Amino acid sequence: MKKNLFILLGILTIFNFNIYANGQSEDDNILVVASNCEWPPLEFVDKDGELAGFEVELIQALESVTDYKFKIVNVAWDGIFAGLSNGAYDLIASGVSVTEERKPKMEFSTPIIEITQSIIAPADATGMKSLKEVDGMTIGVQIGTTGHLVLLDTEEVDVDIKAYDNIALAIEDLINGNLDGVITDSVVASDYVVLNENYNGKIKITGIASSEVEPIAMAFKKGDLETLKIVNDGLQKLEDNGELAALKAKWNL
């Protein structure tokens, strides 16, 4: 009898694991959202330990215009796309740029904002207004981001690239004199330079690393058109009722 009970419990454990491994909760009306919450003002952990930011509030707003609940999980950027492909969650809301390289691998929602890639340097730095002006320098990026890809793909300059698990570590190394500059999303750069009191007078935005405008959207597993439609329909309602514009204004986007 005990043996049969253990077998039954084992089956139930495997069953439950498979449910969560595929990004689905026990409630079919809950969608799991992956976010790397180290990108203020898009998503970050505030001083009270709560998730905050434009995309966090946008996801929360989607609950008011859809029949779904959204559960945000804070995950590392490294591997976030692999998790989407493997079904660990239903979508990503984490400042994801829509690129030609990513389009064959995943679905994208209607773009929610547009960005460029900014160059951050120490407050006393000169020049560094474009990618050509960082030739020969040591530049920090967050690994696997479009800022990282800009440097990897360019043949215009020879740069010593330092890739970090999150952009905050790169900024700290810049402050400590271990980097000449940092390349990151323009909205993130503005938040660190303009709004973060810890860096007042220490760093500045000197220019842009790429003139190409990048649309930012939510990402979905390739072929998951059902979840894509749920979110796109919700985004359209938020645009129509003015809430999307209000959130952009609140977060200076």
Report a brief summary of the structure:
The protein is an alpha/beta fold and 253 residues long. It contains eight helices and twelve strands.
CA-atom Rg in angstroms = 20 Å
**What gross morphology would you assign?**
globular
Q: What profile does the largest beta sheet have?
A: 9 strands, mixed
CATH superfamily of the largest domain: Periplasmic binding protein-like II
Integer average pLDDT: 89
> Tally the helices: what do you get?
8
Spans of at least 5 consecutive residues with low confidence? 1-22
Query: Could you say which structural class the secondary elements and strand pairing correspond to?
Result: alpha/beta
Oligomer: single chain
Order of helices and strands: HEEEEHEHEEEEHEHEHEHH
> Can you identify the CATH class of the largest domain?
Alpha Beta
- Roughly what percent helix? 25-40%
Strand content: 25-35%
- The appropriate CATH architecture of the largest domain is 3-Layer(aba) Sandwich
Q: What would the CATH topology of the largest domain be?
A: D-Maltodextrin-Binding Protein, domain 2
Give the end-to-end Cα distance, rounded to a whole number of Å: 63 Å
* Total number of strands: 12
Number of domains: 2
Explain the layout of strands and helices:
Blueprint: H1 2-21, E1 30-35, E2 38-39, E3 43-45, E4 51-52, H2 54-65, E5 69-74, H3 80-85, E6 91-97, E7 106-108, E8 113-122, E9 138-142, H4 146-153, E10 160-164, H5 167-175, E11 181-185, H6 186-195, E12 203-221, H7 225-240, H8 243-250
Parallel strand pairs: 1-5, 1-6, 9-10, 9-11
Antiparallel strand pairs: 2-3, 3-4, 6-12, 7-12, 8-11, 8-12
